[in-house]
Amino acid sequence: MDPIRNPYAPGAGQRPPELAGREAERDAFDVVLERVAHARPERSIVLTGLRGVGKTVLLNALRSAAVRRGWGTGKLEARPDQSIRRPVAAALHVAVRELATPHRGEADSVLGVVKSFAQHVPSGDRAPKLRDRWQAGIAVPAVTGRADSGDIEIDLLELFSDVAGLAADSGHGIALFLDEMQDLGPQDVSALCAACHELSQQGLPLVVVGAGLPHLPAVLSASKSYSERLFRYARIDRLDRAAADLALRAPAREEGADFTDDALEAMYEATGGYPYFVQAYGKAVWDAAPRSPISAADVAVAAPEAETELAVGFFGSRYERATPAEREYLRAMADLAPEAGAGRTEIATAAVATALGRAPQSLSPARDGLLKKGLVYSGQRGKIAFTVPHFGRYLRAHPDDPGESRTDVR
Predict the structure, then answer these.
(1) For residue 408, what pLDDT is reported?
(2) pTM exceeds 0.85, yes or no
(3) What pLDDT digit, counting tens, does each position of 93-107 carry?
(4) Would you tell me how many other CB atoms lie within 10 Å of the CB of residue 371?
(5) Domains in the chain with CATH codes
(6) d(CA 157, CA 197)
(7) Residue range 50-84, pLDDT digits in tens
(8) Residues 15-39: pLDDT tens digits?
(9) Is the distance from CB of 208 to CB of 174 less than 8 angstroms?
(10) What is the pLDDT of residues 192-203, one digit of tens each?
């Protein structure tokens, strides 16, 4: 098979050639766009799921749908060590510039509010050093007295209101896409929920589409109790067999190739239907197969290459970020509940402590470190789970002793 024509794309956030299995979410978002366009009330959207299920890809697809309808859009990625001010300002700067509006003077005024929001340093904060000062890149004066109080909850609401008002005047809307939403700080989460709540009551055309790990709903609920009714939640999971087959077969047929039914069955068994794995195995199998149709024997030959690449890039890079104490904790999790290797089963933290022969309190630093690094998540008190599909079976297949290491993670 010609590697130049290989259609599969196992990149981080890279759109696959066939976005299979996400029709329901895309159709639901189209309804949101139409309802908002007709001044109907709608909720913002939160997508949740493990690493590698395609949340970022879906965010980008939804953003494209909004752009096609003339909406202004902006995207940002939350970071645990960064305030929401600058990323939101940069995203809304893009959204206002995208928005098709004849009211240039009004748009400049709103951009001035965006600039004011971005540049304000809350009272009590140290003035940034020269190397840390950030220029908004907005060629209009900052508007004084709007979105610059220093209270993020007040400022974000004023900013959203002004941007959404501009969109309403132009007959369109604003969509803000927020990836890694679980990494927002507590004050920023509270401010975002409050702003979305107020805008929904006013019927202003601004929608937030967030994506994050499975515990994101709990993060939002802990901040504002009404968040359960504020957002439309959609769990993004692995593909079913039909969608996984389509994700493999449709791109192959575009290139004049195909898979046998046995090969598709072997691919689903190897990938578990996780979109990132589907693309990684698809790429490896295409390169290894001598001819079309790709057979189950070709899958067996190529599987070790795909597993080696995942072991280094997808699993290994994450494992290397963990400290020795954190790695010990991860391995205890994997050994306790092999069925949790896909990340869908939560494990009791008390059971981890028992397995390691340690007091639960002594393991808190390791657990907290893993939570901050995004390697595990806690959906409920006293429970823990992997954020990465198949991470447990990777750990069991790759013991610390290099002499025992093997590439087969099945």
Answers:
(1) 43
(2) yes
(3) 999 988 866 667 788
(4) 16
(5) 23-235 (3.40.50), 244-306 (1.10.8), 321-404 (1.10.10.10)
(6) 10
(7) 999 999 999 999 999 999 999 999 999 999 888 99
(8) 999 999 999 999 999 999 999 888 8
(9) no
(10) 999 999 998 888
Q: Identify any residues that bridge with 76 across adjacent strands, giving them in sequence order.
A: 178
- Tell me which residue has tokens 């029709």: 23
DSSP annotation string for 273-335: T-HHHHHHHHHHHHHH-SSSSB-HHHHHHHHHHHHHHIIIIIIIHHHHTS-HHHHHHHHHHHH
Given a contact cutoff of 8 angstroms between Cβ atoms, the answer to whether 163 and 110 are in contact is yes
Report how far residue 118's alpha carbon sits from residue 198's, in angstroms, rounded to the nearest whole number: 21
Q: What's the token pair of residue 302?
A: 């190529």
Q: Which long-range contacts (CB under 8 A, 24 or more apart) does 20-23 make?
A: 20/239, 20/243, 20/244, 20/246, 20/247, 20/250, 21/239, 21/240, 21/243, 21/244, 21/246, 21/247, 21/275, 22/54, 22/58, 22/61, 22/236
DSSP assignment, residue 395?
Answer: H
**Which tokens hold the place of 119?**
């540049």
Residue with tokens 């130049």: 4
